[in-house]
Design a protein that fits this description.
By secondary structure, this protein is of the alpha+beta class. It is 33% helix and 18% strand. The chain contains four helices and four strands; from the N terminus they run H-E-H-E-H-E-E-H. It has helices at 2-5, 21-30, 47-50, 81-93; strands at 14-16, 37-39, 58-62, 68-73. A two-stranded parallel sheet has the order 1-2. A two-stranded antiparallel sheet has the order 3-4. The longest helix has 13 residues, at 81-93. The model has no long low-confidence stretch (mean pLDDT 89).
């Protein structure tokens, strides 16, 4: 998403619900995940609760006002995340 849409108008943030913070940190480092990361374990209220996340992965697309514009749950081997969010991203970023 960052490669296609850039970072000047699109912010990507990953929120983790991993149990072990060390394992999560190691995974981020070993997979070159250079965008902002947050470990949500122990936060009250949690980001996962606030966005009603019950399955992984879950992607939530917010507009500039913080309104949820699209929600994608799970993986689809037939479509990339970029293609699944394409229409909404083009509306928001034009």
């Amino acid at each position: 998403l960052r490669k296609k849409y850039g970072t000047d108008r699109l912010v990507v943030l990953s929120i983790s619900a991993d149990e072990k913070k060390d394992a999560w940190s190691e995974y981020i480092a070993s997979h070159d995940m250079s965008w902002p990361q947050s470990w949500d374990k122990g936060n009250k209220p949690s980001v996962l609760e606030a966005f009603d996340v019950h399955s992984f992965p879950t992607y939530v697309l917010l507009d500039g006002e913080g309104i949820v514009r699209e929600r994608v749950n799970g993986l689809n081997e037939q479509q990339t995340l970029t293609s699944r969010l394409h229409d909404q991203l083009n509306k928001l970023l034009k």
